[in-house]
Amino acid sequence: SQQGEEDPQALSIQEGENATMNCSYKTSINNLQWYRQNSGRGLVHLILIRSNEREKHSGRLRVTLDTSKKSSSLLITASRAADTASYFCATATGTASKLTFGTGTRLQVTL
Amino acid sequence: KAGVTQTPRYLIKTRGQQVTLSCSPISGHRSVSWYQQTPGQGLQFLFEYFSETQRNKGNFPGRFSGRQFSNSRSEMNVSTLELGDSALYLCASSFSGNDGYTFGSGTRLTVV
């Protein structure tokens, strides 16, 4: 079963624009992580935000977490063609070390 | 430092056969997890090992099993393969299991 639902399912933007993806989840979490996947290959860890944090930045990435709404968003600023990929949120609950992934957002950045 | 290494990259098996996939984690990482990715079900957690002990298990049938060795390397085995087992199998390692994971490139298994 999947904990998270992401929207939009697909997003197409032009280079230089910002991309925002949203993730909603169902149960209380320990932390929430975002990953990128290129063309069905392995996932790349982007950022981890803990349940007691509200916002985190890493380079062009900004992640917010609203535990009252059970939702998170990933903002990629000044998108590049190389950002074209699928983006997944994943939640870790309690002391469990397993990740429950969302359905993913396919981002297409065109020149 | 070397990343997570999964072998083989591609595999074609026949229904009813069994298969073993291998994963070498990042040096120093003690937690190794396995995931199955399919177009229909997305990314599904299989199991996690920490210091040779299975710490978490997903909702997969007993045909799916795994183990971890003293050097943290891990294997997963699928017996009596079914067509529905065709998927990308991803291994991920982490220092403790409570931080971000580093994923391998995956093994793409096709069952015919």
Key features?
heterodimer, A: 111 residues, mainly beta, Immunoglobulin-like, six-stranded mixed sheet, five-stranded antiparallel sheet, 56% strand, B: 112 residues, four-stranded antiparallel sheet, 11 strands, 54% strand
Molecular structure report:
- The complex is a heterodimer of chains A (111) and B (112).
- In chain A, the strands form 2 sheets. In chain A, strands 2, 4, 5, 9, 10 and 11 form a 6-stranded mixed sheet that branches. A 5-stranded antiparallel sheet of chain A has the order 1-3-8-7-6, with no helix packed on it.
- Chain A is mainly beta.
- Chain A has one domain (4-110): Immunoglobulin-like (Sandwich), CATH 2.60.40.10.
- Chain A is built from no helices and 11 strands.
- In chain A, 0% of the residues lie in helices and 56% in strands.
- In chain A, a hairpin with a 5-residue loop joins strand 4 and strand 5.
- Chain B is mainly beta and 112 residues long.
- Chain B is 0% helix and 54% strand.
- Chain B has strands at 5-7, 10-13, 19-24, 31-38, 42-50, 53-57, 64-68, 74-78, 87-94, 102-103, 107-111.
- In chain B, strands 2, 4, 5, 6, 9, 10 and 11 form a 7-stranded mixed sheet that branches.
- In chain B, strand 5 (42-50) and strand 6 form a beta hairpin.
- Chain B is globular.
- The model of chain B has no long low-confidence stretch (mean pLDDT 95).
- The interface between A and B is medium-sized, with 26 and 31 residues.
Give the topology:
The complex is a heterodimer of chains A (111) and B (112).
Chain A: E1 5-7, E2 10-14, E3 19-24, E4 31-37, E5 43-50, E6 55-58, E7 61-66, E8 71-76, E9 85-92, E10 99-101, E11 105-110
Parallel strand pairs in A: 2-11
Antiparallel strand pairs in A: 1-3, 3-8, 4-5, 4-9, 6-7, 7-8, 9-10, 9-11
Chain B: E1 5-7, E2 10-13, E3 19-24, E4 31-38, E5 42-50, E6 53-57, E7 64-68, E8 74-78, E9 87-94, E10 102-103, E11 107-111
Parallel strand pairs in B: 2-11
Antiparallel strand pairs in B: 1-3, 3-8, 4-5, 4-9, 5-6, 7-8, 9-10, 9-11
